[in-house]
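Narrative of activities, Objective 1.

The group set out to show that a structural description can be obtained from nothing but a protein's sequence at a throughput compatible with the screening campaign. Below is one input-output pair from the validation batch, recorded exactly as produced.
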Amino acid sequence: MDRLKLIKPTIILESEYNQMLEEWHSTGEQLVPFVLKYDTKDFKKFIEQIIGFEKGIDIPESFVPHSTFWLINIENKILGVVNIRHRLNDNLLKEGGHIGYGIRPLERRKGYATKILELALIEIKKMGITKVLVTCDEDNIGSEKTILKNKGKFYKKNFVENEAKLSFRIEI
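Output recorded for this entry:
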Protein backbone atom coordinates (compact mmCIF):
# COMPACT_ATOMS: atom_id res chain seq x y z
CA MET A 1 0.00 0.00 0.00
CA ASP A 2 2.89 2.38 0.64
CA ARG A 3 3.87 2.29 -3.03
CA LEU A 4 0.52 3.57 -4.23
CA LYS A 5 0.23 7.20 -5.27
CA LEU A 6 -2.11 9.68 -6.88
CA ILE A 7 -1.07 11.25 -10.15
CA LYS A 8 -2.68 13.78 -12.45
CA PRO A 9 -4.13 12.28 -15.64
CA THR A 10 -1.47 11.88 -18.32
CA ILE A 11 -1.44 10.90 -21.97
CA ILE A 12 1.41 8.48 -21.19
CA LEU A 13 -1.08 6.07 -19.58
CA GLU A 14 -3.66 6.18 -22.38
CA SER A 15 -3.57 2.42 -23.01
CA GLU A 16 -3.80 1.63 -19.30
CA TYR A 17 -6.72 4.04 -18.83
CA ASN A 18 -8.61 2.53 -21.75
CA GLN A 19 -8.01 -1.00 -20.39
CA MET A 20 -9.50 0.11 -17.08
CA LEU A 21 -12.54 1.55 -18.88
CA GLU A 22 -13.01 -1.67 -20.89
CA GLU A 23 -12.90 -3.66 -17.67
CA TRP A 24 -15.52 -1.39 -16.12
CA HIS A 25 -17.77 -1.50 -19.20
CA SER A 26 -17.58 -5.32 -19.27
CA THR A 27 -19.25 -5.45 -15.84
CA GLY A 28 -22.17 -3.24 -16.86
CA GLU A 29 -21.67 -1.22 -13.68
CA GLN A 30 -22.10 2.51 -13.42
CA LEU A 31 -18.87 4.46 -13.96
CA VAL A 32 -17.88 6.31 -10.79
CA PRO A 33 -16.64 9.00 -10.50
CA PHE A 34 -18.44 10.83 -13.30
CA VAL A 35 -15.23 11.80 -15.14
CA LEU A 36 -14.95 8.18 -16.29
CA LYS A 37 -17.93 8.85 -18.57
CA TYR A 38 -16.10 11.42 -20.70
CA ASP A 39 -15.21 10.58 -24.30
CA THR A 40 -11.59 9.40 -24.65
CA LYS A 41 -11.44 8.83 -28.43
CA ASP A 42 -9.17 11.86 -28.68
CA PHE A 43 -7.18 11.13 -25.54
CA LYS A 44 -5.05 14.27 -25.71
CA LYS A 45 -8.20 16.40 -25.86
CA PHE A 46 -9.66 14.39 -22.95
CA ILE A 47 -6.58 15.10 -20.80
CA GLU A 48 -6.68 18.79 -21.72
CA GLN A 49 -10.38 18.89 -20.79
CA ILE A 50 -9.74 17.26 -17.39
CA ILE A 51 -6.91 19.72 -16.66
CA GLY A 52 -9.12 22.61 -17.77
CA PHE A 53 -11.84 21.61 -15.32
CA GLU A 54 -9.32 22.08 -12.51
CA LYS A 55 -8.93 25.70 -13.61
CA GLY A 56 -12.68 26.19 -14.06
CA ILE A 57 -12.41 26.13 -17.87
CA ASP A 58 -15.40 24.81 -19.85
CA ILE A 59 -17.17 23.30 -16.86
CA PRO A 60 -20.92 22.82 -17.19
CA GLU A 61 -23.03 25.49 -15.50
CA SER A 62 -24.13 23.27 -12.60
CA PHE A 63 -20.56 22.08 -11.89
CA VAL A 64 -17.72 23.55 -9.83
CA PRO A 65 -13.98 23.46 -10.55
CA HIS A 66 -12.64 19.99 -9.80
CA SER A 67 -9.40 18.01 -9.92
CA THR A 68 -9.02 14.42 -11.06
CA PHE A 69 -6.31 12.00 -9.96
CA TRP A 70 -5.51 8.40 -10.81
CA LEU A 71 -4.41 5.90 -8.16
CA ILE A 72 -1.50 3.92 -9.56
CA ASN A 73 0.84 1.21 -8.31
CA ILE A 74 4.58 0.86 -9.02
CA GLU A 75 3.82 -0.80 -12.37
CA ASN A 76 1.74 2.27 -13.39
CA LYS A 77 -1.45 0.24 -13.33
CA ILE A 78 -4.42 2.52 -12.76
CA LEU A 79 -6.30 1.06 -9.81
CA GLY A 80 -8.88 3.78 -9.40
CA VAL A 81 -9.92 7.36 -10.06
CA VAL A 82 -10.78 10.14 -7.63
CA ASN A 83 -12.39 13.50 -8.33
CA ILE A 84 -12.06 16.37 -5.86
CA ARG A 85 -14.50 19.28 -6.01
CA HIS A 86 -12.88 22.58 -5.00
CA ARG A 87 -16.07 23.88 -3.40
CA LEU A 88 -19.64 22.75 -2.89
CA ASN A 89 -22.87 23.91 -4.50
CA ASP A 90 -26.43 23.01 -3.47
CA ASN A 91 -26.40 19.75 -5.46
CA LEU A 92 -23.06 18.59 -4.05
CA LEU A 93 -24.29 19.27 -0.52
CA LYS A 94 -26.98 16.60 -1.09
CA GLU A 95 -25.06 14.17 -3.27
CA GLY A 96 -21.41 13.97 -4.23
CA GLY A 97 -19.73 16.13 -1.63
CA HIS A 98 -16.10 17.15 -2.08
CA ILE A 99 -14.76 13.75 -3.13
CA GLY A 100 -15.97 11.04 -5.51
CA TYR A 101 -13.92 7.91 -6.14
CA GLY A 102 -14.08 4.52 -7.76
CA ILE A 103 -11.88 1.45 -7.88
CA ARG A 104 -11.72 -0.63 -11.05
CA PRO A 105 -13.79 -3.82 -10.69
CA LEU A 106 -11.00 -6.42 -10.59
CA GLU A 107 -9.08 -4.47 -7.94
CA ARG A 108 -11.83 -4.13 -5.33
CA ARG A 109 -11.77 -5.56 -1.81
CA LYS A 110 -8.02 -5.02 -1.56
CA GLY A 111 -8.03 -1.82 0.51
CA TYR A 112 -7.57 0.50 -2.46
CA ALA A 113 -10.73 2.51 -1.80
CA THR A 114 -9.54 3.33 1.71
CA LYS A 115 -6.14 4.33 0.29
CA ILE A 116 -7.52 6.49 -2.53
CA LEU A 117 -9.70 8.41 -0.07
CA GLU A 118 -6.76 8.79 2.34
CA LEU A 119 -4.58 10.22 -0.44
CA ALA A 120 -7.43 12.43 -1.71
CA LEU A 121 -7.73 13.94 1.77
CA ILE A 122 -4.06 14.92 1.58
CA GLU A 123 -4.68 16.62 -1.78
CA ILE A 124 -7.80 18.42 -0.58
CA LYS A 125 -5.95 19.73 2.47
CA LYS A 126 -3.38 21.28 0.06
CA MET A 127 -6.33 23.19 -1.43
CA GLY A 128 -7.08 24.70 1.97
CA ILE A 129 -10.21 22.66 2.61
CA THR A 130 -10.26 21.29 6.16
CA LYS A 131 -13.92 20.32 6.56
CA VAL A 132 -14.69 17.72 3.93
CA LEU A 133 -18.09 16.34 2.93
CA VAL A 134 -18.18 12.82 1.49
CA THR A 135 -21.40 11.04 0.48
CA CYS A 136 -22.44 7.56 -0.58
CA ASP A 137 -25.60 5.64 -1.37
CA GLU A 138 -27.17 4.20 1.76
CA ASP A 139 -26.87 0.67 0.39
CA ASN A 140 -23.16 1.06 -0.50
CA ILE A 141 -21.78 -0.57 2.64
CA GLY A 142 -18.25 -0.78 1.21
CA SER A 143 -18.10 2.94 0.57
CA GLU A 144 -19.56 3.71 3.99
CA LYS A 145 -16.85 1.57 5.64
CA THR A 146 -14.18 3.31 3.54
CA ILE A 147 -15.37 6.72 4.71
CA LEU A 148 -15.54 5.61 8.35
CA LYS A 149 -11.98 4.20 8.13
CA ASN A 150 -10.87 7.67 7.05
CA LYS A 151 -12.36 9.28 10.17
CA GLY A 152 -15.70 10.11 8.60
CA LYS A 153 -18.44 11.06 11.03
CA PHE A 154 -22.05 10.51 10.01
CA TYR A 155 -23.67 13.86 9.35
CA LYS A 156 -27.10 13.28 7.82
CA LYS A 157 -29.24 11.39 5.34
CA ASN A 158 -30.64 13.03 2.21
CA PHE A 159 -33.02 11.73 -0.40
CA VAL A 160 -32.22 12.37 -4.04
CA GLU A 161 -34.86 11.11 -6.46
CA ASN A 162 -36.19 8.82 -3.70
CA GLU A 163 -32.76 7.26 -3.08
CA ALA A 164 -31.16 7.60 0.35
CA LYS A 165 -27.73 9.24 0.41
CA LEU A 166 -25.55 9.28 3.51
CA SER A 167 -23.40 12.31 4.24
CA PHE A 168 -20.23 12.23 6.32
CA ARG A 169 -17.91 14.96 7.55
CA ILE A 170 -14.17 14.49 7.77
CA GLU A 171 -12.06 17.13 9.52
CA ILE A 172 -8.43 17.28 8.44
